[in-house]
Amino acid sequence: MEEKKSDVSAAGGQKSGKLKKYAAIILILLLAGAGYAWYSYNLPEKRLARALEEADALLEAKNYEEASAAYEQAEGINGVSPEALEGHILSELYRADGLAAKASDIPSRAQACECYGQVVRLCDEAAAALEDPSDERFAQPRADADAKRTALQEEIAAAYDKVECYVEKEDRSGSFLIPGGNEAACTQYFDLAVVNDQYYPYADRINESLQQQKDDYFADPENDPSSLLAKAGVVDKDAVCRDYVGVEGTYSGQGLLCIRMAHVRNIGGTQSNDYCGRTFRLSDGGEVSLGDLTGKTDISLRRFVRRAIWSWLQQEGYTEILKSDVEDYVEDRRADEYKFCIRDDGTLCLVIDQSVPFFADRQQTLEIPLEIDEDQEQ
Questions:
Q1: I need a surface site. Which of 150, 236, 331, 358 has the fewest CB within 10 A?
Q2: How far apart, in whole angstroms, are the C-alpha atoms of residue 265 and residue 241?
Q3: Distances (CA, A) of 364 to 272, 342, 351, 355, 356
Q4: How are strands ordered across the β-sheet holding 366-369?
């Protein structure tokens, strides 16, 4: 009997051991399966697919701002995802369309413009990221956004009668070498006018043009103080040396911005004044000529300028200037080279300075008011 009990006990122990072994194997398999499932679930391509599905749902529901953020997060999951890039761009484009549809004033239109600009930037970045010139999937949304932004900018600019600006002075005054090894002080600076209206869409266009004018002034060897002093034969360290471009004033109104500037040079007592003002059209930020403002063709503009100068000289008593000199000046200049300015009161004036041959020996600058008579055009 004891032997039978011992056999049963041994058999039970063996059975129990097998069960534990099987249980351990099953547990290992379950853990392995769970680990594989977790690993598979978190594969980059699977995570990307889930992220795109969520973003697509937001886009379909017209939650464009949330969809844009979701697509942007998806872009970093599994390398470059064209689908995520495209979804991000479309979300921003639809969001811009919504802003444009609701825009009722300049600030809201400017916000829509900025959003369209963001779409253009995203398209350029996406195309660069794909590194495939043949893939043009972003070309159409970019063209759409750019066209809509341009139309809005034109609409905003058309509402501007005037803009505000301020002046920044870049001062490079100092001491410069003169013949004989001495140094002489020279005043040199450039007054840079800057348009600072936060909503005006063509501020950068005008500011870049004015900035280039400043850069060209300082880059021109003819404006180097040492060269100026040497050419003038200045040897006195206390000699007067001034060379600068100064803003004399600005006018903005009637859809125009006129910045009145002059390049003034006084070296060793010899002074010159060269008017170099600029006038811009606010509707597109482009520069305008006297012909643009008067609406006159080349031939009639020359006739108009000649008549205005001669009448003014006679009225003001400049009897020593010959009419033939005026005629030669008018004919020798291109029609778009006639200098002009707009005074603070809005008066359009023809400018005659020392660059004009018959006025070269004078240090003053004439501003001749212009009265545009439509009958004179005939």
A1: 331
A2: 8
A3: 9, 18, 11, 11, 12
A4: 340-342, 348-352, 366-369
Q: What are phi and psi of 332, to 5 degrees?
A: -80, -15
CA–CA distance, 236 with 182 (Å, rounded to integer): 8
Query: How far is Cα 321 from Cα 264, in angstroms, rounded to an integer?
Result: 24
Going residue by residue through the chain (378 aa), what tens digit of pLDDT does each one get?
555 555 555 555 566 666 666 665 665 555 555 554 444 455 667 788 888 889 889 989 999 999 999 888 888 787 778 888 999 999 999 999 999 999 999 999 999 999 999 999 999 999 998 888 888 889 999 999 999 999 999 999 999 999 999 999 999 999 887 777 778 889 999 999 999 999 999 999 999 999 999 999 999 999 998 888 888 777 677 778 899 999 999 999 999 999 999 999 998 778 889 999 999 999 999 999 999 999 999 999 999 999 999 999 999 999 999 999 999 999 999 989 999 999 999 999 999 999 999 999 888 899 999 987 654 443
Angle between helix 82-102 and helix 139-158 axes, rounded to 10 deg: 20
User: Is residue 271 within a helix (H) or strand (E), and if so which, with residue range?
Assistant: strand 270-275
Bridge-based pairing of strands 241-253 and 183-195 is parallel
Which bin fits 272, alpha (ψ -120 to 50), beta or left (φ > 0)?
beta
- H/E segment holding residue 18: helix 2-41
